[in-house]
Design brief:
The complex is a heterodimer of chains A (189) and B (82). Chain A has seven helices and two strands. With 189 residues, chain A is mainly α. Among the domains of chain A are: 65 residues, 434 Repressor (Amino-terminal Domain); 42 residues. Chain B has a single domain, classed as Orthogonal Bundle (434 Repressor (Amino-terminal Domain)).
């Protein structure tokens, strides 16, 4: 039986509720009750979580992740995609990006060293495609623009890291304020 | 590994993570760490013995306070830190 005690809805619970709403919206599950049954829980699991009567358990979370192909990181950090597939796609894109942004790594996007097309290594093939058909003047310009873009990406990357750190600090401050108010509320009860 | 009996693998990785935080000097001691979050000092031992799971709320707070990688707790990544 659900306890009659009401607790504030935790962040993980909030994200769990959001996930179920998306699953319903994406027609992966018909309604809250069906969702509850699908993870071997009960029909009122979601309403109970919404009211703060219960919290989602690790087992329920793991069952959901496995059954619906959910990205587990979604529950614990911001800006994470809900579905595993999308998360994997982002990881692949990031890997390609990491390999193409900075200096020597630039060459890895073609997986240079080993492979090749028609006897040419990928890097050489790419250079041929990009530069060889162009007149000397254009080639120089292309190389300059390429260098400039790489520098720009590096600057943006550093900037995004700084912003990420700032957001994290703000989050910590907000969490501290939240904890302070929860403590005050508990004391006043 | 002492945490082999943990109820779920998330709990198992949680115990390993707490030990690593201690080794890396990110926390002074397990007991202090647990009491800072309002938990009993026997929690880790209970989790290791499979008597209970770590709560998701606790896990969420630790992940965000220490900037840990959530994928580590799902066994997807070996990197504990983000």
């Amino acid at each position: 039986m659900p306890s009659s005690r009401k607790e504030p809805v935790t962040e993980v619970d909030r994200r769990f509720i959001k996930m179920v709403d998306i699953l319903i919206n994406d027609k992966k599950v018909k309604n809250q009750s069906q969702f509850g049954y699908s993870i071997n829980a009960y029909a009122t699991l979601l309403p109970d979580i919404r009211r703060g009567k219960r919290s989602v358990t690790i087992q329920q979370l793991l069952d959901t992740v496995n059954l619906y192909g959910i990205n587990g990181n979604f529950f614990f950090s911001d800006n994470e995609p809900l579905y595993k597939e999308e998360a994997q796609r982002q990881v692949d894109i990031k890997k390609a990006g990491d390999n193409s942004i900075i200096g020597e790594k630039n060459k890895k996007i073609f997986h240079g060293g080993n492979g090749g097309i028609n006897g040419l290594k990928y890097v050489e093939y790419a250079d041929k495609l990009i530069y060889e058909e162009l007149p000397e003047e254009c080639r120089t310009k292309c190389k300059d623009v390429n260098r400039m873009l790489c520098e720009g990406v590096k600057v943006l990357y550093r900037h995004s890291k700084k912003l990420e750190d700032q957001i994290h600090k703000k989050n910590e401050q907000l969490l501290q304020i939240k904890d302070k108010y929860i403590n005050l509320l508990e004391k006043n009860k | 590994m002492q945490s082999g009996k943990a109820k779920s693998y998330i709990s198992k990785y949680f115990v390993i993570a707490v030990k690593k935080l201690k080794t890396d000097g990110r926390i002074a001691s397990q007991n202090r760490f647990l009491s800072d979050y309002g938990y009993s000092k026997s929690l880790i031992s209970h989790i290791e013995k499979g008597r209970q799971d770590v709560t998701l709320n606790f896990l969420y707070r630790v992940i965000n306070d220490f900037r840990l990688n959530p994928a580590y707790f799902f066994g997807i990544s070996e990197e504990l830190y983000r």
